[in-house]
Structure formats: C-alpha cells, structure tokens
C-alpha cells in the first residue's frame, strides 16, 4: 500500500467520524510548505545573485541593471527556478528581483497561500522602482492575478502554469486525499477562515485585468490542467496565450519560447508607453 493510499483510507474513515478534525489536519498540510534545496543547474545563477531584504522581512534575489521585473515562484518553489528566464531578462538589460514567497526560503512565516503571496507582491512593489512586469509561476501566477485586483502597479504581467479558479484547486486537493463530503466542506471553510477571503471569489472570471499580459501553460502539465490557461486568457482581454506542447508543470520555465514571449510583451508595452507619452 502506498502512503497516499493509506492517507486516503484513514481520511475516508475518520472524515465521517470527525470531519472538522480531519479537515484541520489537511488544512495545515495544505498551507505548510517544505523547504526544497536548489537543483545543481540553479547554483551558478544563485552564486551571482545579490540577496536583499525588504522592509517587512521578505527576502529576494536581485540581478542585472535596468528597468525592474518582479518574479514570484510557486508552491515549494525557489527564485532560481526561473534561471533561464532570468538570464534572458538580464542579458536584455533588465533588473530582475525574484522573491522568496512567505514561508519559503529566507522569507518569514510558517504558512503559505495565494493571499499571503499576493500581499507579498504588494509589499515588494511598494519598495521597488516602478515595475515593467510581474511574472508568476503556478501559485505565484495566481497570486499575481489576485494582487492586480488589490492595486498592484505594473506595466504588464505574466501568468505561467497557474490555476484560473482556486476553489477547484482546494476541491482537487481534498478529493485526492480522500476526504468525504462533510470533511471536504469543512476543509474549504477552514481555509477560507485562515486566508480571510471567500474562495469562490478567487476566480479570474470576476477579475478586472486591464493591462497587457501573457498566459503560458504546457499541454502535458500534470499538476495544473492546461485547460485553465484558456480560461485566464478569455478573462484577460489584452493577453496572449502561449500553449507549449511539452514542459510539464515546471520544466516550461526553461523553454526559450517563454523568454522570447516575455521580451515581446515588454517591447510591446514600451512602445505603447512611448506612443502615449
């Protein structure tokens, strides 16, 4: 029996008897990220980074000189997972600031969720020079879209392998861990209580996305379905959709087509700004 099968069996039994208790255990697991070490291919870029600490304790890595682009990794991710994209941006004359999300890397906190990530983006943006673009991967992509609703100022934004509806993420997690119906409902209620936002409101269909954007996803993503990307693109009037045949959930970050598409987006926003000046 696999560990997941055992967890599902226990949850299936106890979830009927003590739904709130089981939901609480799963909620804590859902919001408690592991610290995973960088891969060997991330180390050269990490060695060249400047470590900075922002006003409220957020940690970040910085490279390059020029207009600023802000990056946010996903769940249990790292700033240097964007290594190929960072190299492309720095070589093209940009400063790149890549955050350690809350409860990740050297940033403070014990819990992480999309709301905390969105607030971290707002805190970082308040201290950094005007942002040319904000780019997020997975949960980081969802947090970029949410932060835009809360006033994040940037010329453009990029969502990579992100979910369109956070409620479906929670339901999928609960189903995968075998929570019965009452425990699933309790799990979602408890998450909503912790994050302070009704989860059904974290849906791009209700968002106002009025800046140029790029939506990127790999068709073979096994963690966030590629069908989420067209939903984001449809809700985001001024966006380009880039679907890659392969790349999984994280390997697409190294695809040169991603870097090229980001540079094209930045060039388009620069030209637009000059025309309106």
Automatic annotation (TrEMBL):
Pfam families: Abhydrolase_6
InterPro entries, A to Z: AB_hydrolase_1 (IPR000073), AB_hydrolase_fold (IPR029058), Carboxylesterase_BioH (IPR050228)
Keywords: Hydrolase
Domain (AB hydrolase-1): residue spans on this chain: 69-190
Sample GO molecular function, one term: hydrolase activity
Protein name listed in UniProt: Alpha/beta hydrolase
Organism in which the protein naturally occurs: Pseudomonas xantholysinigenes
């Amino acid at each position: 029996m696999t560990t997941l099968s055992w967890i599902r069996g226990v949850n299936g039994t106890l979830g009927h008897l003590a739904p709130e208790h089981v939901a609480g255990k799963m909620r804590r697991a859902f919001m408690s990220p592991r610290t995973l070490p960088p891969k060997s291919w991330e180390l050269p870029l990490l060695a060249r980074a400047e470590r900075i600490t922002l006003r409220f304790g957020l940690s970040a890595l910085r490279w390059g000189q020029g207009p600023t682009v802000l990056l946010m990794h996903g769940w249990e991710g790292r700033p240097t997972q964007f290594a190929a994209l960072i190299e492309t941006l720095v070589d093209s004359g940009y400063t790149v600031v890549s955050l350690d999300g809350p409860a990740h890397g050297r940033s403070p906190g014990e819990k992480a969720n999309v709301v905390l990530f969105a607030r971290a983006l707002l805190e970082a943006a308040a201290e950094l020079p005007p942002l040319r673009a904000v780019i997020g991967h997975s949960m980081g992509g969802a947090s970029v879209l949410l932060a835009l609703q809360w006033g994040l100022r940037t010329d453009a934004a990029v969502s990579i392998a992100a979910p369109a509806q956070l409620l479906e993420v929670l339901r999928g997690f609960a189903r995968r861990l075998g929570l019965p119906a009452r425990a699933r409902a309790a799990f979602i209620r408890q998450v909503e209580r912790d994050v302070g936002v009704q989860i059904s409101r974290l849906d791009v269909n209700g968002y106002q996305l009025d800046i140029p954007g790029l939506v990127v996803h790999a068709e073979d993503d096994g963690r966030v379905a590629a069908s989420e990307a067209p939903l984001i693109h449809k809700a985001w009037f001024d966006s380009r959709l880039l679907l890659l045949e392969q790349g999984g959930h994280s390997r697409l970050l190294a695809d040169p087509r991603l870097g090229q598409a980001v540079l094209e987006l930045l060039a388009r926003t620069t030209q637009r700004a000059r025309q309106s000046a």
